[in-house]
Queue: 2 jobs
Job 1
Amino acid sequence: MQKILNYVNGQLMPPNKGMYLENYNPAEGKVYSLLPNSDESDVALAVQAGQTAFVEWSAMPLAKRAAILQKIADLIDRDADKLALAESIDQGKPLKLAKAVDIPRASANMRFYATASMHVSSESHLMEGEAINYTTRTPIGVAGCISPWNLPLYLFTWKIAPALAAGCTVVAKPSELTPMTAFLFSELCIEAGLPAGVLNIVHGLGSKVGQAIVEHPAVAAISFTGGTLTGKTIAATAAPMFKKLSLELGGKNPNIIFADCDFEGVISTSIQSSFSNQGEICLCGSRILVERSLYDRFVATFVSRAKALLVGNPLEEQTQLGALVSEGHLKKVMSYIDLAKQEGGKVECGGVQVKLAGRCADGYFVSPTVITGLDQQCRTNQEEIFGPVVTIMPFDTEEEAIAFANATAYGLSATIWTENLKRAHRVAHQLKSGIIWINCWLLRDLRTPFGGMKQSGVGREGGWEAMKFFTEAKNVCVKI
Ligand code: TXE
């Protein structure tokens, strides 16, 4: 069986203790490869390699550094089909989606930050007749990047690209549920000539490898995407060590639909924002709020479109929803559907595990699920489910829509549908979310700040925000 290897100090190597974990193909419910069950000794080697490599990498001319990152992007493009297939097998997502979104975005992340690093300029502040201040930004050192399983290579590169472009070296840990594309990525880094120790990838459990990265005194910054509870644990460890922290956590995002919307646009985009990637995207609009005069029509049309979605073998072209990432996650999603029923919800469609024939007979498939009849405060409407499950609730006034939208502990993203320009802006200003889409969803410009309010996280990624995160400002004041 294939063994995934760690990537430490430029070498692909087994974990120190020779222990491995089983890696599942979620569409088949079967183990298909093994990944290192690394521990703090592997992390210690990786951090040491990062510290040594930092001297050369942080001093390398920007253009040279950028050329290596661009080369990695070229190699991702060259191997796009292979990487997309690996992502689909490892994660359960439709191959078509991995080809259209995940892998192109991984190379775009590398290219975006490779070129961004060459456009950085420093600030200066003149004190008339007295002094001049100039501010430099220097890379922070060894950065820890911990990424999740929903968009594996996409989010892995989203973290390491700005870190490397800023001149940091990195110790990264992909999710133990989806390690394959990060492993293939390490082979591409070697081929691209990335100097040894600049990027180190240590595979294994969050509680062992992730925790060891966060605890290591020589790791100066932690960039994490994952669950809110894990984020709390990481913050509790890192904050007393005065590490820089960027936390991208969960969401319970409202999709607010006013009666004056473009109805066809709303339906087709809401199907996407509800069920893309099996609903395993932190930006999915899992709470759909609809103005009462449109409510019945919306529910009828949306439910009929959700029923028509094809859940199937992720490798087949016509499949629209693949498998959930793991058996554990399947159980979590199913338990929330049970909870919704206990809370008085009506399952309008779906709500069941899908049993496929043949190769995928034991896979973790759930039908697109739409639930109505719940109030805003119930647990189903407060907690992140992270699966193909949405609720629909009516509202009567703009004020009520805003109150409902803001009525959770999360504040990641929100979508507003209306043809009334003034209302769109008015509502956007009152929503407590870091990312707002008006009449669209998941339209991403990599220059914009990305992140959430409240329990959706701390800090922002994207554009200069990420470059700033991985660098430290130093002000020099010169008397003239
Ligand atoms: O994520 P974890 P899980 C949400 C979603 C999901 C829930 C739990 O609701 O159902 O979180 O998912 C590493 N120190 N999101 O448990 O554990 C872990 O190995 C350091 C939202 O799978 O947060 C993995 O690499 N690292 C989300 C990464 O953290 C630790 C994406 C994420 O895993 C660690 C995923 C520790 N103590 C889940 N414990 C989003 N915001 O997009 C775990 N890890």
Note: The mean pLDDT is 98.
Job 2
Amino acid sequence: MVNVAVLGYGTVGSGVVEVLNTNKDIIRQKAGEELKVKYVLDLREFEGDPVSEILVHDYDVILKDKDVKIIAEAMGGEEPAYTFTKNALLAGKSVCTSNKELVAKHGAELLEIAKKNNANYFFEASVGGGIPIIRPLNQCLVADEITEISGILNGTTNYILTEMSEKGSAFEDVLKDAQDKGYAERNPEADVEGYDACRKIAILTSLVTGAQVDFEDIHTEGITRITDADFKYAKAMKASVKLLGRSKRIDGKFYSMVAPFLVKADNPLYSVNGVFNGILVHGNMVDDVMFYGQGAGKCPTASAVVSDVVDAAKNLGKNVPVVWSKNKSELGKFEECKSRFFVRMKDKGLDDDQMTTIIEAFGDVLYVKAEGVVDELAFITKEIKEAEFAEQIKRFEDVYSVIRVDF
Ligand code: HSE
């Protein structure tokens, strides 16, 4: 029997206990031993819940118990999760986590500590919730040079964009509805501003490059400026707007960003709707591989944590190597990244100068019309560097919207 401790009895932590109980027999078979939850750590009391019998409030009880070999960390946030994880690994206990903030910031260091102490730091649930993506990158796809990862990495924003697209609603109305239904947090900033997706693409890019990608270095835009008019144009182009976390290898360097993109139906990410996540990986041998599923939620996320717990149980006292060094990955400069841009601006009517300035700024562009939208000019530029676009767009007043185009 292998004893496990769960840190945090919130959504994910209680899910971990539920998955281990519900699938006890199948998990025993797969792990080769019974996995028993010996402790749950939480500051709160849970009267009437059977968890009360194994509830502890003092982390030292877990840390000092030599029988606890594996810890499922489901606390979230940087502290005390960082200190608890570090001390567990130093004590030779393996840690499995869903904590993307911690993995993005301290992943390389914690992996190094795990290695030195013949333990493991696993984080399948930190990206894409229940979708297997970390283990595929570390194991199944290692024969490939990965040249691109593009993902819908945040369920909240994908739900909001899908509702806007399907119902023609405004961002604020859908956000409020999503908050009322519990799909969006009361403080939605981390999701709608793209910070959550940014940490996830930073983790994936660190694994692909084998070195540290700091999320602070990734250009990040959220979805707060997307309007119902943008979706009218998207429909006219048979496209949709998706918030993508993307890392693309060009001339030996990865260019990473998080931003809304116009995506067409021939892109598998186009059909990823609602709270679902999708991650498209391109390898130089395997070609395109798509991962799709529930990127959040109690049982999907807990399923990924427990899969790590099983892996840790199968590798007690033995480190499974993960290539992610503390050295910084050299990312390509965002300013040099090239995209096509969809631009909407006020139509100045018979003002010929506006058209001339558009040609001067961007060369030939592709004009787009949308049903029900008046007094606007909308067009798609050719591929152009970010820095050049930022410079040229300054020539125009009354720009309503700018979205990168993925076709
Ligand atoms: N807030 C995140 C999302 C939760 O909406 O995808 C999972 O990381």
Note: The domain at 2-126+298-328 is CATH 3.40.50.720 (Rossmann fold).
